[in-house]
Amino acid sequence: MEMWQSDNMSLDRPRNEGQDAAADAPWGQAARTRRWWEMGLVLAVTVGQSALYSVLTLVRRLLAPAPLGQQTTQLNPSQDTAALWDVLYRTLAVFFDLALVALVVYLLWEPGKSALRRIGLDFRRFGGDVGRGILLLAVIGIPGLGLYAVGRALGITVQVQASGLDSAWWTVPLLVLSALRAGLTEEVVFIGYLFDRLRRQGWGWWTIILSTAALRAAYHAYQGIGPIIGNFVMGVVFGWCYRRWGRVMPLVVAHTLIDIIAFVGYPLAVGLWPGLFGPVPMPTGTPTPTPSAG
Question: CAAX prenyl protease 2/Lysostaphin resistance protein A-like domain: from which residue to which, for each copy (predicted)?
Answer without folding.
Answer: 169-260
